[in-house]
Design goal:
The complex is a heterodimer of chains A (224) and B (220). Chain A has 224 residues and is of the alpha+beta class. Chain A is 46% helix and 10% strand. The chains are: A alpha+beta (224), B mainly alpha (220). Chains A and B meet through helix 1, helix 3 and helix 4 of A and helix 2, helix 3, helix 7, helix 8 and helix 10 of B.
């Protein structure tokens, strides 16, 4: 076994030979007990050294290791500690580049005020409908065309049965604008309902005949 | 276990960690220390063969790492730079202790053989069963003596190779020598240790190899 053989053997054990060199040496190892024995010793020595250090390192308690280092460093070498706070929403939005991210961000910005507004409007509407009005009869009393009005009421907006309906007329009043809160078709009739509009604060229902000549489209008129 | 990319180049996570250390980030530095502390201590113990000295040296190395972090440019691997610091600190400790003379391989064993008052490394444990000797710490003592008999240069090379598994190229970079010098020193260090531990190597055979997972490494 020459010095060159030994050098090659060391490089083989260390993984420093190319694939071709390793294959060539492996072939020689099969026919050389001296080389084989040497390789076994090198591997044993390596294992022995690693086990020696590993056993020692495992036996050491490193819990105060860093503290010992920091004690040797003055505080000023470290940057002042910064309390980590969540980044402002605006800053985070910069990263939301996808379409879904932008939609989600829009909803986060707009949905809450929208919902609050809608809830407030609904609360006011319910209060107006259900609040008893002074001087007006309660208990579902009907002043005119009661059958048609009640039929419209149940079909239209689910008005409570006990709610007073002040008037149910075939035509809206001529004077002034009429504010309609809901519209529905009842057979040949169109039903308009105006819940809190008039001065009395009661619900008003109009039943209109769909076949009225005024509703017929003129030639060339846009149905919309 | 620290994972280092091919050739020991920085991985992005480690580059980020080092970048934060350079800015004086205390938490990042602690993370870096915790990542490398066992390795630093292992090398230091291998070099100094004393627990307290090894602990002091490893901590001192980290202090130097932090102080010199800004000089680390990142164009070489951090871990070779780091080991260079660890090894240099250990060598300083060795010299300060003045407990060990840097003696090269050939002289070491000729002197030991010539001196009649020195008990051979294998000593009176030669006839004991190797397993028993190891369990009693006898082999550890012999190994300790064998490693201490190596020069600082030889010890450094063989520890970086055997304990850290560094390539010849990385060792050369860490120690600041040519690859040929690494191979030469490694060859002599091994030969020296083999000579000192021969009875144990022959007796213990493949048990150690099996226990420590030793095997022929293949070059990728």
């Amino acid at each position: 076994m020459t010095d060159e053989d030994l050098e090659m053997l060391h490089r083989l054990v260390d993984g420093e030979l190319s694939a071709d060199e390793a294959a060539e040496l492996e072939a020689r190892l099969e026919t050389s007990p001296a080389l084989t024995g040497e390789r076994a010793e090198l591997m044993q020595l390596s294992a022995m050294l690693r086990q020696d250090i590993s056993t020692e390192v495992d036996a050491v308690d490193f819990s105060n290791f860093y503290a010992g280092i920091e004690a040797q460093l003055p505080d000023e070498v470290f940057a002042p500690s910064v309390v980590e706070e969540p980044a402002p929403i605006v800053a985070r939005r910069a990263d939301e580049s996808g379409l879904m991210d932008r939609v989600r961000a829009w909803f986060q910005r707009s949905w809450t005020p929208l919902m609050v507004g809608a809830a407030a409007a609904a609360a006011v509407a319910v209060w107006v409908i259900q609040a008893p009005t002074e001087g007006q009869p309660n208990g579902g009393e009907v002043y005119a065309d009661a059958d048609k009005a009640n039929s419209a009421r149940t079909t239209l907006v689910g008005l409570p049965a006990e709610k007073t309906i002040v008037a149910a007329a075939e035509t809206p009043p001529e004077s002034g604008p009429v504010y309609v809160d809901a519209v529905s078709n009842q057979g040949t009739k169109t039903v308009l309902i105006s819940m809190p509009a008039d001065e009395s604060g009661a619900t008003v229902i109009w039943l209109l005949d769909e076949e009225d000549e005024d509703t017929q489209l003129l030639e060339g008129e846009d149905p919309i | 276990m620290v994972h280092v990319g091919p050739g020991g180049r920085l991985k992005s996570a480690e580059a980020d960690l080092i970048g934060r250390c350079k800015q004086g980030d205390r938490r990042a530095f602690q993370e870096l220390v915790e990542k490398y502390q066992r390795r630093a201590y292992g090398i230091a113990f291998g070099m100094l063969r004393n627990r307290d000295d090894a602990m002091d040296a490893a901590q001192e190395a980290f202090v130097k790492v932090f102080r010199n972090m800004k000089s680390f440019k990142g164009d070489s691997s951090f871990y070779t730079w780091f080991y260079r610091i660890v090894v240099n600190v250990c060598i300083d400790h060795c010299r300060k202790r003045a407990k060990m003379k840097p003696v090269e391989y050939d002289e070491t064993f000729r002197r030991r053989d010539e001196r009649q008052d020195v008990v051979p490394l294998s000593g009176n444990t030669r006839d004991m069963h190797p397993e028993v000797q190891f369990e009693q710490g006898e082999l550890s003592k012999v190994l300790n003596a064998a490693i201490e008999s190596l020069s600082e240069n030889h010890r450094t090379i063989i520890l970086l190779r055997e304990i850290e598994g560094m390539s010849y190229e990385d060792i050369a970079e860490a120690v600041g020598v040519h690859v040929g010098t690494v191979m030469s020193r490694l060859h002599h260090a091994r030969k020296n240790l083999q000579k000192a531990l021969k009875p144990y190597l022959e007796a213990s055979g493949s048990d150690y190899a099996k226990r420590a997972g030793a095997g022929v490494r293949k070059k990728s």
